Amino acid sequence: MSDATFSESHADDIPLEATPAIDHVKRALYIILGFAIAAIFIMPIVWSVANSFKLPAETLSDPVRLIPRNVSLDNYRNLDTVGDGLWSFVRNSLFLAVGTVVVTLLIAVPAGYGFSKFRFPGQNVIFVVILATMMIPFQSILTPLFLILVKLRLANSLTGLVLIYVTFQLPFSIFMMRNAFDAVPKALIESARIDGASQWALMRRITLPLALPGVATVAMFAFLNSWNEFLAALIFLSQEEKFSLPVMLVNVTTGIRGMIDWGALQAGITITMVPCILLFLTLQRYYVRGLVAGAVK
Amino acid sequence: MAGLVLQNLIKQYGTTRVVHGINLEIENEEFVVFVGPSGCGKSTTLRMIAGLEHISGGRIYIGDRVVNRVSPGKRDIAMVFQNYALYPHMSVGENLAFCLQQRGTPRAEIATKVAQAAETLDITSLLDRRPSQLSGGQRQRVAMGRAIVRNPEVFLFDEPLSNLDAKLRVQMRGEIKRLHRLIPTTTVYVTHDQTEAMTMADRVVVMNHGHIEQVGRPLELYEKPATTFVAGFIGSPPMNLLPGTLSGAGDDLGLTLENGTTVALRGKVRAGVEQARSANVVLGVRPEAVGIAAQGPQGVPVPVTLDEVEPLGIETLAYGSIGRTTLCARLAPDVALQAGAPADLFIDTDRAMLFDAETTRALT
């Protein structure tokens, strides 16, 4: 071609291609499948919640029904008759969970910072040893732990149990926090040092705010694990006034004249899982970021 | 305000020495650019000045004070990092204020200083934004704002423009110069880009393998490179370096190149011959001293094969090969040359220089 011609096409004139029908069908199938899988996971929770709001008799006679015939809080009232009453269990569980979160963070954040930002002899060995403790099944050392707590006069005490929970929470938490601090770019820290920040200011103003996703993840795991923990709570606590929610749930199933009060049990389960779900929904945004911190630059 | 002195500065990692006893005096308010290929030790030297890197040997003075053991925050320096290193969780205003807060500056004074710095750099409208909401050029400006806000003794720049696109780089280059005129402060600027070095520096320090090759004003480096390394590093395209052997004497004095071609040495280049300790030398000639016709009385023809002809509009670059060596000529834009053909390129030996092949040092 000797002559080249230029012409501008107008965007309005260009016919757009229609999305093929097969793509719509694929998408619809994809969504239906997604809903089906979600339903499998969600249904037990929905049933628990639904049954907890039925009349106790209906809970027993018609557990499958999703919408209660008569909405009632009787199951929750029955729950309050177990042991020292519902609030006592909730209070104990909150103490355990919040206590575990606070103590875990107080230790794991500085420890993770130290492992990430300082170089000291034996650093790797110490870190591996800390991680290695994760491999010991917790059930296998319950007896020695119990003996230690008795010696420390912390048996049958919520504080003692918090310490146990913290012990088992720490390896993962320190690992998480180290990764979170590792993900903070070195240049930021150097910049802050040139800006005259002290070690404390550096951690509080620069690295910790940037490692918050890690903190959120650690806090969430510590909360969920201690809130739901059953075996240690059952073994270390011997007075009913100190029982946590998971222990109460067992008492509900076996407590009343050897007969299981299904309605009260569902009410207990509902109350137990509400904080977990709320916490997870609040922190999930940070949680994902925290887990993958340091995975890619 | 203070100058900066590096005295026998050494950096060693284990047994590997990366900076070999550097000596340099930087005057108060001087703008010095460290330039060199990656791994030449320029960034390490800058980081030692900043206090981010332990000093293995020697001394660093800022003003009259030895700062070897002074923490970075107390050296009264400010540094602009390659990737800006802005605190992502703070607004631009908080980024600027951070260093003042760490120094316990009263709140009212911080506000005034931040406002002033923001105005100087034209970022007042960005003060409430987060770094993630800024463009590359704006981030660069904020990084500079963070440096000037506290009025330090020394500014340090670590390849600050390498993350910007070509156009923005030229613009920011101008801004950094303007800033230096506005707030004259001793400045050490590290870059691998020789154009930045040439355009910005009062003095350029060329580094290679942990040594200083040459220190001088930009044009001095261009016209009188002390070593073949500097000759090959400064200038784009760089100086042609033709290794050969001295032959003949008197009017027959020439340089026999690797492929047997002899280039007659006439004019000022002969001054170097007397300094030569051996016959092995390197002839250095800038592309602009190579033409397609004799330029003046000292033009010496060299037969080459033209490999490449690059018309750039403002000029045409022609690359010819003499054996394995390439000879580049900077020509007028309208020359008609055909790549692949043999041609004669003329070297103006009045503007050429000789280097010792062994020590690589200039002989003129």
From TrEMBL, chain B:
A UniProt-annotated Pfam family: OB_MalK
InterPro entries noted in UniProt: AAA+_ATPase (IPR003593), ABC_transporter-like_ATP-bd (IPR003439), ABC_transporter-like_CS (IPR017871), ABC_transpr_MalK-like (IPR015855), ABC_transpr_MalK/UgpC-like (IPR047641), Mo/tungstate-bd_C_term_dom (IPR008995), NA-bd_OB-fold (IPR012340), OB_MalK-like (IPR040582)
GO cellular component: ATP-binding cassette (ABC) transporter complex, substrate-binding subunit-containing
Alphabetic keyword roster: ATP-binding, Nucleotide-binding, Transport
Gene3D superfamilies documented for this protein: 2.40.50.100, Nucleic acid-binding proteins, P-loop containing nucleotide triphosphate hydrolases
GO MF annotation terms: ABC-type transporter activity; ATP binding; ATP hydrolysis activity
Source superkingdom: Bacteria
Residues covered by the ABC transporter domain: 4-234
GO biological process, one term: carbohydrate transport
PANTHER family: MALTODEXTRIN IMPORT ATP-BINDING PROTEIN MSMX (PTHR43875), OSMOPROTECTIVE COMPOUNDS UPTAKE ATP-BINDING PROTEIN GGTA (PTHR43875:SF1)
Family: Belongs to the ABC transporter superfamily.
This protein's name: Sugar ABC transporter ATPase
Organism: Marinibacterium profundimaris
Taxonomic path: Bacteria, Pseudomonadati, Pseudomonadota, Alphaproteobacteria, Rhodobacterales
